[in-house]
């Protein structure tokens, strides 16, 4: 009996931009030793239900850590607005969607 692997190897979505990201990160995960690229690639394969949204409040908390202000934050999912947040630091964020 053939044993199947239980994880996805490609996204189910037909979104061309998602497929471009998968192509880029699969190349990076294969060619570099950085585990970051493998983590991003795995989370690009996740279904919409298993990709929880990230609030601006949480993004601000991560950016307030030492040395995180000048880096690019990558969110594989949706970044949602938080009306409780009055001021937000300048940030560079890459995400699949903003709402």
UniProtKB/TrEMBL annotation:
Alphabetically ordered keywords of this record: Ribonucleoprotein, Ribosomal protein
InterPro entries: Ribosomal_eL18 (IPR000039), Ribosomal_eL18/eL18-A/B/_CS (IPR021132), Ribosomal_uL15/eL18 (IPR021131), Ribosomal_uL15/eL18_sf (IPR036227)
Stretches assigned to the Large ribosomal subunit protein uL15/eL18 domain: 3-99
Molecular-function GO term, any one: RNA binding
GO CC entries: cytosolic large ribosomal subunit
Keyword Ribosomal protein attached: yes
SUPFAM superfamilies (UniProt xref): Ribosomal proteins L15p and L18e
Pfam families per record: Ribosomal_L18 (PF17135)
GO biological process, one term: translation
Family label: Belongs to the eukaryotic ribosomal protein eL18 family.
This protein's name: Putative ribosomal protein RPL18
Organism encoding this protein: Meyerozyma guilliermondii
Gene: RPL18
